[in-house]
Amino acid sequence: QVQLVESGGGLVQTGGSLRLSCAAFGNIISINEMGWYRQAPGKQRELVALITNIGRTNYADSVKGRFTISRDTAKNTVYLQMNSLKPEDSAVYYCNTKVTMRVPPWSRREDWGQGTQVTVSS
Questions:
Q1: What are the angstrom distances between the C-alpha of 77 and each of 7, 42, 87?
Q2: Which SS3 state, helix, strand or coil, does residue 74 take?
Q3: Residues paired with 101 in a beta bridge
Q4: What CA–CA distances, in Å, run from 26 to 77, 97, 113?
């Protein structure tokens, strides 16, 4: 089983910054991918950014140049630095992980965090 602990959401004004973090806990051999998705009311969940086990990153076009995803492999933690925030960035942000587990040996699983609210006021 994998537990994801998210933090860092909140209320910020347009142009402000927030930093989200997500730590993964469990009997993990390796983290293959960690990412952030978001879901606004009435909309589908969408990818914001992800980072792979070799450090490759991928961003939604809407956040390129404003958001930066990074990781601390020793802590199994991923961060999302969000700058120049806009009202349209308001959503619940979910951490997502794809990992390889020790038990069952070399099994793979995908997990979601509980979500953290980000609200950007105009």
A1: 11, 29, 27
A2: helix
A3: 28, 107
A4: 12, 12, 14
- Residue in the block written with tokens 């040996």: 105
Could you report the per-residue pLDDT of 10-56, keeping only the tens digit for each?
999 999 999 999 999 999 999 999 999 999 999 999 999 999 999 99
Structure tokens at 22: 């997500």
CA distance 19 to 34: 15
Query: What pLDDT band is residue 103 in, cutting at 50, 70 and 90?
Result: confident
Angle at 48 between CA 35 and CA 65, to 5 degrees: 115
Strand partners, 19: 81
**Residue pointed to by tokens 């995803």:** 69
Q: Which amino acid is at 51?
A: I
